[in-house]
């Protein structure tokens, strides 16, 4: 048979349009039309899938380039926001949970001792609008400066250096006296940025409050208490 | 990108696992960023596109099914589609799919095309059956996300000639892949 039947012609035309879509040569309007058809025409969708798979070996032509760290922070912000009053439970297995818990006990013991020994180093009377705390840890790869603006409830955390492994999150904690630490949220993956303090906790941040940062599994502590080592801590004082 | 690992991570991402998402990003973002840079030719736009791409990956991870496509190719397709949408918005191309397609080509038999068989050939072998400049046009359309007009300019041929080149090449490739 030398003359294509109308059916054959349509089939070939569809194959070509599917191929043009995958190649990327179509206009924006045409791409939307193809996508609308993809949703309703399984045979046509199969043609597109097949071209996708056939042509994917051309992907070898793309050289990998590591994107800047700010891109992942922007993605996390867009998807998850950083406003969280308590850590989200991790769904993944945390194989060394017991180890982290052991470390947590040790860390908090150390923290409380340090907190007690540091009492009186800073002004404790406060009616000022803003507070600042410099958070640092012995031998730590990271130093943070936390600024709390009481009027807006924004707690701004600026890293001096951040070199923690990417698979971990830095979680910020508020400790008043011997009360249990309260999670103020997880810092964006770069260690940079602001956390909006939940209104119920704002009144609890005052001069003398201890701010601490712990290393947690990505996404925050799975248990609601710090599970990783405290890498930085400091007391709030008036600006 | 190792497809098995990536498929596993996509499975966890579809359950809302943010650790898996971060790991998936760590492993795959250089390749997808490379795609964005090549097609968009601009770091700022490439970063913006990459952000949209991973938002889509988070939202669509549940639609990935193993066996349908290799995980790496599935991610690359999302990235290419996003980058091409960006570039078409910036540099509009002519609409064509509602026009007549000149597909007359005695070499391609529609009855053969209709036979669906397991694909025994790789695209590379079939590309070699195309004339060199046409194979090059197909490859550059894909890799660089060029429009018909841009390809016509690059290859110094009339727009309609380029359309005919690519469309007939697509039919020849389809026929070759199924042979």
UniProtKB/TrEMBL annotation, chain B:
Keywords: Sigma factor, Transcription, Transcription regulation
Gene3D superfamilies: 1.10.1740.10, Winged helix-like DNA-binding domain superfamily/Winged helix DNA-binding domain
InterPro entries assigned to the protein according to its UniProt record, in alphabetical order: RNA_pol_sigma-70-like, RNA_pol_sigma-70_dom, RNA_pol_sigma70_r2, RNA_pol_sigma70_r4_t2, RNA_pol_sigma_r2, RNA_pol_sigma_r3/r4-like, WH-like_DNA-bd_sf
Record flagged with keyword Phosphoprotein: no
Domain spans labelled RNA polymerase sigma factor 70 region 4 type: 121-173
Span of domain RNA polymerase sigma-70 region: 24-91
Classification via NCBIfam families: PRK12514.1, sigma70-ECF
Family of the protein in this entry: Belongs to the sigma-70 factor family. ECF subfamily.
Protein known as: Sigma-70 family RNA polymerase sigma factor
């Amino acid at each position: 048979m030398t003359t294509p039947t109308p059916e054959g012609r349509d089939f070939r035309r569809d194959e070509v349009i599917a191929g043009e879509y995958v190649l990327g040569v179509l206009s924006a309007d045409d791409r939307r039309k193809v996508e609308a058809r993809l949703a309703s025409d399984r045979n046509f969708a199969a043609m597109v899938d097949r071209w996708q798979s056939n042509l994917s070996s051309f992907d070898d032509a793309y050289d990998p380039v590591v994107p800047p760290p700010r891109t992942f922070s922007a993605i996390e912000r867009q998807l998850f926001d950083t406003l969280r009053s308590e850590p989200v439970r991790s769904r993944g297995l945390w194989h060394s949970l017991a180890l982290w818990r052991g470390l947590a006990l040790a860390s908090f013991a150390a923290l409380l001792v340090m907190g007690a020994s540091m009492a009186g180093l800073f002004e404790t009377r406060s009616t000022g609008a803003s507070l600042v705390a410099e958070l640092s840890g012995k031998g730590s790869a990271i130093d943070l400066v936390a600024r709390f603006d009481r009027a807006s409830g924004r707690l701004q955390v600026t890293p001096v250096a951040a070199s923690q492994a990417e698979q971990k999150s830095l979680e910020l904690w508020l400790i008043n006296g011997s009360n249990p630490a309260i999670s103020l949220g997880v810092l964006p993956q770069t260690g940079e940025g602001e956390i909006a303090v939940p209104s119920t906790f704002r009144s609890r941040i005052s001069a003398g409050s201890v701010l601490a940062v712990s290393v947690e599994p990505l996404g925050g502590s799975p248990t609601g208490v710090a599970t990783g080592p405290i890498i930085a801590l400091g007391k709030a004082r008036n600006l | 990108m190792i497809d098995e690992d990536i498929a596993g991570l996509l499975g966890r991402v579809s359950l809302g696992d943010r650790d898996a998402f971060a790991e998936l990003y760590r492993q795959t973002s250089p390749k997808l960023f490379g795609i964005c840079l090549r097609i968009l030719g601009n770091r700022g736009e490439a970063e913006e596109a990459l952000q949209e791409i991973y938002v889509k990956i988070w939202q669509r991870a549940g639609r990935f099914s193993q066996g349908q496509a290799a995980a790496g190719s599935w991610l690359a397709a999302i990235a290419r589609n996003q980058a091409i949408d960006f570039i078409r918005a910036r540099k509009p191309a002519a609409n064509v799919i509602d026009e007549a397609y000149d597909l007359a080509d005695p070499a391609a038999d529609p009855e053969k095309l209709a036979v669906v068989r397991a694909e025994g050939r790789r695209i590379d072998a079939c590309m070699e059956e195309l004339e060199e400049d046409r194979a090059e046009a197909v490859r550059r359309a894909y890799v660089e996300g060029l429009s018909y007009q841009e390809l016509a300019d690059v290859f110094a041929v009339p727009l309609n000639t380029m359309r005919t080149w690519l469309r007939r090449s697509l039919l020849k490739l389809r026929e070759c892949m199924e042979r």
